[in-house]
Amino acid sequence: MIELRPSRDLLDPEFAGYKLSIDPVPCYEYSLEDDVDHILPSDDQYSLLHAKVFGLHNHLYADVLSEDNLYYVDERWRLRRVRQNNLTGRFEGLHTMWEMTKHHPRKPGHYNPSLSFTSADFAVVSDGAGSLYIVYTGNREEADSFQTVHVEEPCGEEKAFKVIHSRCISEGGHKFIHCLLLHIETRPEEEVKESKEKGVFTTLLEWLIFNDGGIGKWSLHASRQVSTVKGIEYAAIETYCTALYVASENPVVFTKDSEKPVEDRKILEQENMQKPKRYMWLQNQEDITVWLQLAESVVKQDIHVKACADCLTITCRGQNLLEGDTCHRLSTELPAVWTLEKGKLELTLNKEETGLMWSCLLKGCDEGEQITDPALVAEIHERLAHLCSETESSGGCVTTFNSEQLEECDEVSSSASFLHRLCPQTHSTTHKVTLGGLQWLFSCQLKPERVPAMCLRHDVDGCVWQPYEPGDSIREKPATSDDKWPLKHVGTFFALGYIQAGKSQRKFSVCSPDLSYVAICEATRHIYIYRQPCPVNGELRNRRTGRHVKQVAVQQLLNLDSQEEILGVHASIEFLYVLTPSTMYAFHINVKD
Q: Strands across the sheet with 453-458, in order?
């Protein structure tokens, strides 16, 4: 279990807010010949899972290797490219790059078309009607058209799905394209009755692997399926296609694998329930208490406890009862204290960092059960009382923003969510990152060779985290659970968590690859730009405090002339691109010197 702890160097506790700027932002627009192909959910697609899949679908696709090229699928199922001149900023016109050759007439239950650029010369496309296309693009800077090299209905005839990620790797003279597809299915009634989760729908991820046979003749090589009862916020295939990353509130498990059988989940769950826990543990802000049940014949002379700064060992009559690295560091100033009474061993350990709540006692050990401390729960409720009580707290709680500014939209889910790293070889979770009560803000592609980064709310800020492959950055062997999974805090958008929570009409949130600005797009017309703090030329002081202001963050409001729904958005370093059903816009956010 891994916990995300932001870097203090990337935080600013004295951030004063954004200054509203009325400076004009140059805007270029281009009218499309045919409207964007935009599908609405049918009467059977009524769940929250469907609402997110349809409502948050981004119809605008940017080539991360060449951000001047933008793509969308029109209502005639043609992949259209809009190219922008990087010198003048103006659009050079529309060009049809490719057309879907196998058509299923639109009918209820279909999804929106989706596209993923797999590599410098390949892409995968879904028509939203059940067909998956592997498309050879060649050099996309020079290509005038793309070519279909393979068509398949991987989920069944006219079984609609959405492409969310893909990668291409080479091994032994063969090319392998890994595709990640998402679709939502109705759960069997028996499964709903037996399960603790009563949701009617489940989210399925299909991990497909296509092989070119070394001669460019593509075929389906392997297929895997992963499921979770609730929705997912994030899913991506690891850089070298050795694992799958999924952020979800509920457990994520393999359900099918064409290369090796998947063990029955029900049997595993029953075995885990029947397996007794070796120890119980409880924590508060300062210390941890551990209990082990031993034979009543055991005496104190039989017990040996060794508690170091980062490891714990308990032995009884020469045999290890507990041994391993602790989740976080223990205090070496205060010794561990233990007692033994009628075979019950009670051990008290002191945390080095007071207030840090541990996700587990020993790393990689699931043989213990954590007990919730009623006193700690009461203390937390008391501290948060000013957020929900009708009477304002008079306590001396210091916050970046007034408690009056916190609203219902600032609340987070009561369930813990996790970022999982799933291994296809063992069908298990090798690494897990606890997201706790952190709100998911958005994901962003910072570097083409990496998986998308994620922006999470920490307090009122939006912290950007970049996942890396466990172990070395370039590996010759698959990662194992012994390797630490690094997620690096690479940037912060100050107060973004609070700002985004107040945007009730928000549809898309995007940021530039260099993290110089973030854009929040509403469903229609309004787009809010928040720029990172920049040095101030000249003397500037805060009127209220008199403190010298060295840098200022800027907020700008952009308005579209049209009332059409915003269907897609993409942020490059220089431009913010916005797509409506009939028009493409380009706002020149950062002008090069």
A: 440-444, 453-458, 461-467, 487-493
Rounded Cα–Cα distance for residues 536 and 292 (Å): 61
Per residue in 251-270, pLDDT (tens digit) is 899 999 998 888 765 544 44
Q: DSSP characters for 178-242?
A: EEEEEEEEEPPHHHHHHSS---SEEEEEEEEEEE-TTTT--EEEEEEEEEESS-EEEEEE-TTSS
Residue that is last in its domain, among 338, 366, 394 = 366
Average pLDDT over residues 158-162: 92
Query: Does 47 share its domain with 177?
Result: yes
Q: What is the DSSP letter of 8?
A: G
Of 284-288, 295-299, 555-559, the range with the highest mean pLDDT is 555-559
| CA dist list (Å): 26 to 62, 166, 576, 577, 590 | 20, 34, 11, 12, 10
* Sign for the pseudo-dihedral over CA of 272, 274, 275, 280: positive
CA distance linking residue 34 with residue 109, whole number of Å: 23
Amino acid at 490: V
Structure confidence at residue 540 (pLDDT): 64
Kindly report the backbone phi and psi dihedral angles of residue 71, in degrees, each rounded to the nearest multiple of 5, phi listed first.
-130, 150
Residue 411 has pLDDT above 60, yes or no: no
User: Do residues 225 and 289 share a domain?
Assistant: no
Question: Higher pLDDT residue, 263 or 17?
Answer: 17
User: Count H helices, E strands: the chain?
Assistant: 6, 40
Position 320 in a domain: yes
DSSP states of 49-96 as a string?
Answer: HHHHHHHT----EEETTEEEEEEEEBTTSEEEEEEE-TTT--EEEEEE
> In the prediction, which pLDDT does 270 show?
47
d(CA 8, CA 461) in angstroms, rounded, equals 12
Angle subtended at Cα 224 by Cα 219 and Cα 225, rounded to the nearest 5 degrees: 135
**Farthest-apart Cα atoms in the chain, separation:** 86
Question: What CATH number is associated with residue 303?
Answer: 2.60.40.790
pLDDT value, residue 373: 60
Contact 136, 61 (CB under 8 A): no
**Helix, strand or coil for residue 518?**
strand
Residue 285 corresponds to which amino acid? Answer: Q
Higher pLDDT, 391 or 251: 251
Residues 148 and 295 both lie in one domain: no
pLDDT at 452 over 60: yes
Q: How far apart are the first and last CA of the chain?
A: 46
Average pLDDT, the chain: 84
Note the pLDDT of residue 382.
Answer: 54
Closest CA to 44 of 125, 109, 113: 109
Q: Which residues pair with 306 in a beta bridge?
A: 313
The DSSP output letter for 358 is P
Residue ending a domain, choose from 366, 394, 419: 366
What beta strand segments (E) does 239-375 contain? 244-248, 253-257, 279-283, 287-293, 303-307, 311-316, 319-325, 337-341, 344-350, 368-371
C-beta of residue 113 within 8 angstroms of C-beta of residue 73: yes
Query: Is 550 within a domain?
Result: no
* Cβ atoms of 222 and 254 closer than 8 Å: no
